[in-house]
Each structure stands twice: as C-alpha cells, then as structure tokens.
Amino acid sequence: MRSVLRNRRFRLLFAADLTSLLGDMILFVALPFHVYQATGSALATSAAFVARTIPQLLAPLAGAAVDRFDRRRLVPAAQLTAAAALSALLAPGALESTWAICAASVIESAGVQVVVAAVLATVPAIVAPDELVAANAVRSSAESITLLVGPVLGALLLGAFGIETIVALDAATYLLAAALLAGVLVEGGARAGAARPRGAPARLRPRPPARPRWPGGLAGTIVAVSGLAAVGEGMLSAGLVPFAAVQLDGGPQTLSWLVAAVGGGTLAGAVATAPIVRRAGVAPVLMLAPLFAGGFFLVVARTHSFATATALFALAAFAGAIASVTETSVLQGSVPASALGRLAGVFTAARALGRTAGLVLAGALAPLLGIAGALSVAAAAFASGTVVWSARPAALRRAAGIGLVRADEA
C-alpha cells in the first residue's frame, strides 16, 4: 500500500474520495433524522432514503456518459450539479419541505453516480496493473473511515449547528473534491488518447463507446457475485436493529457498537487484502472470502451474546472487505478502459438492486422465519459467491491470470 501512496495523482484521488465520502456520510445520517424531526412521519423519512437510492438504479446511464464524454469536463459538472442541488436546500423553507429534500437528493445522487463511475474507470489509468489491489484497498479504507467517523460527527454537528450547516458543509466537500480531481482525471470517450502508466497493457487505451448492457464472462461473474452479496447487505441492514434490540436485548449503544465493529472489520480487511492476495493468490481469495463472510454471519444469526456478536460482525466485515476489494480490482484489470465507465454503472446498479431486494426480502421473511432465520438467509446470500465461482471455473482461471499485486507489496 505504501508504493501506491507515493503516486501523487492517486493521493489526490484518495483525498477527493475521503472528502466527498465524509460529507455524504454526515448528511446521510443527519438529513433523514431532520426529516423525521420536522414531519414526525416514518414514511417521509423513508422517502429521504429512497430518493438517494433511485439514481443508483440508473447508474449504467452515468457509466455510459463517462465513457462517451471527456471526464475532465463531465465530472466537475456532475460535482457542481450535486453542490448546487444541496445549496438550493438553503433557500428559506426548503428544508421544511419533504418534496424539496427528495428532489435535491435525487439530483445530488445522480451527480454522484457519474463521479463514482469516472473514479472507478480512472484508477487503472493512474496506477500500474500490479498495484490495483493496493489502490482499491486504500480507497476502501476511506469508506471504512467515514463509516466509523461520519455517523458520530453527523449527530454532533446536527445538535450543535443544525441541518443548514451540514448541508452547506456537504456542498462544500463536492467543490473541494472537484478541485482535487482536476489534476487526476484522464480524458474519456472515443476521442481520448490518455497516457498509460508504465507497465500497463495496450487494453487500457480507450475504445469507441457502446450502449450499456449486462457484461458477460469474468466481468459478469463479478457483477453477479457482488449483487448477491448486496442482497445480504440489504437484509442485514433491515435486520440489524431488531437483532440488537430483541436477540441481544440491547439499545442504541448496542447498535452503535455493532456498526463500529463492521467499520473496523472493513478497515482491517481493506488493509490486509494486498498481502493476503499476494500470498494466497487471486482465485482462492475470490472463492473463500464470500464463504467466510457468510459463515461468520450464520453464526451471528444464532448467538445471543453481545461480545460474540460484535467479534463475529468484525470478522465477517473483514472477509467481506477482502472479497470486495479483490473483485473490484479484478474487474478493473480485466476490462478495457473504454468500457470501464459503463461497467461501473452496471456494477453500481446491480448492487443497488441487490440491496433493495435484500431490504424487501428481510421484511417479508422476518415474520415467517424470525430474526435468526432472516439473518441466516442473509448469510447464505453472502456465501453464494463461492457457489457462483465454483460454477464458473473458466472465469476463475482468467481472474487468477491477472497480475494485481506487486511481488514486494506489503
């Protein structure tokens, strides 16, 4: 990981990631809470969450735009749009209107989808192929840090300064991230002739764009595995509160410790991915990490011990982070740069659809199977990645042939 952090362009990308993610996480916690305080309506609060999710289902369109147009212009425009949408909420009375909040959230999230696709497509263009796992591990650590810090900071800022300050702060993070990415992004689209990093194969040269479609082969396998894991994540999100309250007989503090365990496990897993892949190999990691994640969650579903549950949540998140970082790295290392934007959009949409399906499935199964039964199904969704890879040996062999880590990476 140290070698990739010596890359100035990647450091700027990481700083932009961390800045934007932190602002988003603070607002993600504070805004729905503000809506509930202002309206007293659980339906309005749910609408605030759903509004941010809808654009994720349309992410393939954002990915196609990333491959079609010059990213150096498209991404700043998307970030300015997101900042403008949030700034509009500072108008008098806007934050008291659920409709205004939902509309701004949809526009903001649409801009985010463009940025997410562009950044995923940019990483292979600024780091060498054998540094992809390290690069994605560093980026995943940014998500983990914001997961640990964001909710607490959001609650503190909301109580101390109010929702207006948080909205303004998140808008400012988009502007700062745009400035940081200005020296990082490479031109996308058919006209691009972006330079490749030393050692990168010719496949990284952009090709003419095509319409978004479901990927096949290795890329399709990764999208399917990640989508199934997202089903488990959605079910876990829906079942976490009743699990903490009923099965562990706890309260908000119990829930916060479980969330912190997930954040800590994810951070540790991101840091450990590169050395584990270097020692064990890509194929064994892709096969076994989902199985371990599902196995830990299966034991969680049966425990009534807070200490045991906290440890198992951390271990499951550790294994899940290793799987996620490795899958993303293989995806970037196996697809032409000209198609990465579209594929990132399909990847994001598949995960959003999986999480939505998991939320619905958990609500339907919990009354029938109980909390433990529903969490057991979630565990099976995580572990199903191992089944998919077992059924796709050709894809697994191709993944094993991609050099994703340096021989001396630590």
What does the model show?
With 410 residues, the protein is an all-alpha fold. The protein has two domains: 171 residues, Growth Hormone, Chain: A (Up-down Bundle); 184 residues, MFS general substrate transporter like domains (Growth Hormone, Chain: A, Up-down Bundle). Helices cover 81% and strands 0% of the residues. It is built from 14 helices and no strands.
Per DSSP, what share of the residues sits in E-state strands of 2 or more residues? Answer: under 5%
> Remind me, CATH topology of the largest domain?
Growth Hormone, Chain: A
The averaged pLDDT comes out at 83
Radius of gyration using CA atoms only: 21 Å
N- to C-terminal separation?
A: 6 Å
| Strand elements, count | 0
Number of domains: 2
Q: What is the overall number of helices?
A: 14
Helix content range of the residues, please?
Answer: over 70%
Shape: globular
Provide a brief overview of the structure.
With 410 residues, the protein is mostly helical. Helices cover 81% and strands 0% of the residues. It folds into two domains: 2-129 and 145-187, Up-down Bundle (Growth Hormone, Chain: A); 217-400, MFS general substrate transporter like domains (Growth Hormone, Chain: A), CATH 1.20.1250.20.
Show the helix and strand layout:
Layout: H1 2-5, H2 8-39, H3 42-57, H4 59-68, H5 71-88, H6 98-126, H7 132-161, H8 163-181, H9 217-247, H10 252-280, H11 282-302, H12 306-334, H13 337-391, H14 393-400
Helix pairs in contact: 2-3, 2-6, 2-7, 2-8, 3-6, 4-6, 4-13, 5-6, 5-8, 6-13, 7-8, 7-10, 7-12, 9-10, 9-12, 9-13, 9-14, 10-11, 10-12, 11-12, 11-13, 11-14
